[in-house]
Amino acid sequence: EGLQAYCALLNDHPELRMTFFVLRSAAAWRKVAPDLKPFIETGRVQIGNHSSTHPNLQHMPNKLIQKELLDCHHFIQDVFGVNELPIFRPPYGAIDDRVVKAAADVGFTYPILWNGTFASGSGVKPGTVAKNVKKWMKDGRIMLDHANSMATPGVFKYVLKRLDQLQLTTVTILDAYPHLGLMNQ
Fold this sequence. Notes:
By secondary structure, the chain is mainly alpha-helical. It has nine helices and six strands. Helices cover 47% and strands 10% of the residues. Helix 3 crosses helix 4 (97-104). It is globular. 29% of the residues are buried.
């Protein structure tokens, strides 16, 4: 339901650009793939790797870290037809030097973290998202949102208003860091 709402937002607002970090074990990704593919093909949506089953990578041996990322990588290639390397977003933001090295050894050389959050997700009320938009949304911030709930779509008019007030535009990770595109060719 949440991912479908994001597709509707993208349809209704051609100025929007987003990066989605895919969790292979979430069935919604396969369902929404046909709707997301046109946005991916035009560059308005970028796909990144969020792991296969959402474990804390710091609690795993190197081989299992790599398996988590590679299983999701193969899923992304099969379902979306793209190569998301070299970016990944570690679940929970749980990362250290060992995780970075294990991921880099299989091609994931750019962990993406965030410095602002909508604090959305299951059970979160739209009002909480609106408060966090006001608190965290600023120029140059990577905003974290979870597309598995309706909290953000429920206040998306406010999000757009805030973007306009701050004279901000949305971008993909590749828009912000264009050198990464050269790495996955």
